[in-house]
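testing teh design pipeline on a random one, pls ignore if ur not involved
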C-alpha cells in the first residue's frame, strides 16, 4: 500500500492506496464520494471528471498515487455552507439536470472553465465541455445553464494549497537519474506512466497490468518549454494544454497547437503528454505529423546511453518505435526557424473526441517571398506517419499550378487502408484536399 497525501474538497486527507488503484476507485469505493461515475472507463465520456489543481481530469485515467501532493475537488465539495454552487443552481433552473451519470462531470468541467475564464462565451463553453458526453442530447439546456452561471456574481473560492507528497520514489521518481535507474533494474517488468490517457486505456482492455506502472510526471527534467540554442525544447511530460498555451510553440512549431487542440477533450489535454503520445506510437496520433513537419528530434536516455533520433526514424510501425525498454523519452527538439508558418488539419468522425481518419501537417518557411523550406506530413494513411517528399518538392519549386500538382501527387505518396474508421479511397482523396487547405491556411495566416 502507498501513502497518499492530498487536499480533498479543501480538507487535508491522508490515505493508503494500492499501487493498481485508480483515483476513481479510491474516491468511490474507499472514500464513498460517489458523485464521480464510471461510464466508459477510457477517457471518452467525462462522467468521472474531478478537478485536480483546478483542472478537469478524468479520474478513470489517473492512478490514486498520482494524486499525491495535489488538491482535488469532487462534486461533493461544491456545497458551500449549505448553499449550492451557482452552476448547480443554474443546472436546476435551466432544466439541465437530466441524469445522475453525466451531470456531476459536466458541472465540474464547467467549473474548471469558469474559474479560468469567468466570462466564457458559448463557443468557449462548447469547447470546455467537449470531453463530457450526454447521451440524452440535453446539450442545449446544459449550455444554457453554464451561460447563466457565467454571469453569476458569486465569487470563486480560494483553492486550498496542495500538501507535499509522500508516495515512495519507487512509484514517483523525482529525478531523471532515479527514473532511468529504475528502468535499468527492471526493464521488462515496469513501464513509465505519464498522463495515462493511453496506457490506462490499455489497462482497461487488459493488455497492460496497472501494477507495473510508475509515474514519471514528478521528474523535473521532463518538464518545460525552453529555447535552447538554435532549438525549441519541449519536455516529454509537457501536456497538450501547456503546449496550446505556449507562445514559443506557436512561433516555432506553428502546426502543433492546432493538433493539441483536437486531442480528446479538456480532461485528456490536461493530462496527456507529448512524450506519452510518442511512446504510444499510434499512426493516428495528432501531434506526430506536426513534429514531422517541424524536423523534430526525439531525445532518449538510459543509464548507459543518450541518443537523439530524428522523428522520421523514431517509429517502426503501429505501436512500435525504436524506444528501448530501458529508455525514457526526455523531450523533443525543434529547430527555431525564423518566420516559419504551419497548419494542421484532420478529418474525424466528428469534431471532438474522435480518432483521425486522415490528418495533414505542413511547415513552410519563405525567403524573399519564395518558399525555401517545405514539409508535408500525413497521419492515419500508412503504418506510421509519413512525409510526402514529392509534394514538398513541388511546393518548394512553386508556380501557379504547384498547389494542384501537390494535391494530386500526395495521393501517390501514401498507403491508406480500409478499416472501421474509413476507406482507402476516401482517405486518399481527402489527403489531397486537406493538403491544399493546409497550405492555404499556412500561407494566408
Ligand atoms: Fe468515461 Fe472516465 S469513465 S471518461
Ligand atoms: Fe446524462 Fe444526458 S444528462 S444522458
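output:
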Amino acid at each position: 500500500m502507498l501513502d497518499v497525501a492530498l487536499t480533498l474538497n479543501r480538507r487535508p486527507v491522508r490515505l493508503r492506496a494500492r499501487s493498481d488503484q485508480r483515483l476513481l476507485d479510491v474516491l468511490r469505493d474507499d472514500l464513498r464520494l460517489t458523485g464521480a461515475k464510471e461510464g466508459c472507463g477510457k477517457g471518452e465520456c467525462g462522467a468521472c471528471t474531478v478537478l485536480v489543481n483546478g483542472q478537469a481530469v478524468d479520474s478513470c485515467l489517473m492512478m490514486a498515487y498520482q494524486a499525491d501532493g495535489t488538491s482535488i475537488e469532487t462534486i461533493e465539495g461544491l456545497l458551500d455552507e449549505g448553499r449550492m454552487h451557482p452552476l448547480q443552481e443554474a443546472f436546476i433552473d435551466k432544466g439541465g439536470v437530466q441524469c445522475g451519470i453525466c451531470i456531476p462531470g459536466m458541472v465540474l468541467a464547467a467549473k474548471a472553465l469558469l474559474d479560468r475564464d469567468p466570462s466564457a462565451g458559448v463557443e468557449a463553453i462548447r469547447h470546455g465541455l467537449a470531453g463530457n458526453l450526454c447521451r440524452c442530447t440535453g446539450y442545449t439546456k446544459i449550455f444554457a445553464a453554464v451561460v447563466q452561471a457565467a454571469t453569476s456574481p458569486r465569487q470563486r473560492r480560494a483553492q486550498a494549497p496542495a500538501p507535499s507528497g509522500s508516495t515512495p520514489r519507487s512509484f514517483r521518481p523525482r529525478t531523471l537519474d532515479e527514473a532511468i535507474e529504475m528502468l535499468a533494474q527492471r526493464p521488462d517488468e515496469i513501464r513509465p506512466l505519464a498522463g495515462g490517457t493511453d496506457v490506462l486505456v490499455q489497462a482497461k482492455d487488459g493488455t497492460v497490468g496497472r501494477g507495473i506502472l510508475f509515474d514519471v510526471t514528478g521528474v523535473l527534467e521532463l518538464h518545460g518549454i525552453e529555447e535552447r540554442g538554435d532549438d525549441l525544447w519541449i519536455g516529454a511530460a509537457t501536456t497538450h494544454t501547456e503546449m496550446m498555451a505556449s507562445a514559443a510553440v506557436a512561433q516555432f512549431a506553428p502546426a502543433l497547437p492546432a493538433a493539441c487542440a483536437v486531442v480528446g477533450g479538456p480532461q485528456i489535454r490536461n493530462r496527456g503528454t507529448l512524450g506519452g503520445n510518442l511512446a504510444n506510437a499510434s499512426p493516428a496520433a495528432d501531434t506526430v505529423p506536426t513534429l514531422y513537419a517541424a524536423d523534430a528530434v526525439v531525445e532518449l536516455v538510459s543509464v548507459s546511453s543518450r541518443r537523439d533520433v530524428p522523428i522520421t526514424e523514431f517509429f517502426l510501425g503501429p505501436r512500435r518505435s525504436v524506444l528501448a525498454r530501458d529508455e525514457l523519452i526526455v523531450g523533443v527538439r525543434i529547430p527555431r526557424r525564423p518566420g516559419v508558418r504551419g497548419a494542421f488539419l484532420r478529418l474525424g468522425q466528428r469534431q471532438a473526441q474522435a480518432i483521425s481518419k486522415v490528418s495533414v501537417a505542413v511547415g513552410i518557411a519563405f525567403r524573399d517571398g519564395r518558399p525555401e523550406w517545405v514539409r508535408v506530413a500525413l497521419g492515419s494513411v500508412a503504418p506510421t506517419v509519413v512525409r510526402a517528399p514529392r509534394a514538398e518538392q513541388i511546393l518548394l519549386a512553386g508556380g501557379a499550378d504547384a498547389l494542384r500538382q501537390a494535391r494530386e501527387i500526395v495521393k501517390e505518396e501514401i498507403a491508406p487502408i480500409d478499416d472501421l474508421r474509413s476507406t482507402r479511397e476516401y482517405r486518399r482523396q481527402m489527403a489531397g484536399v486537406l493538403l491544399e487547405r493546409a497550405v492555404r491556411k499556412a500561407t494566408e495566416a
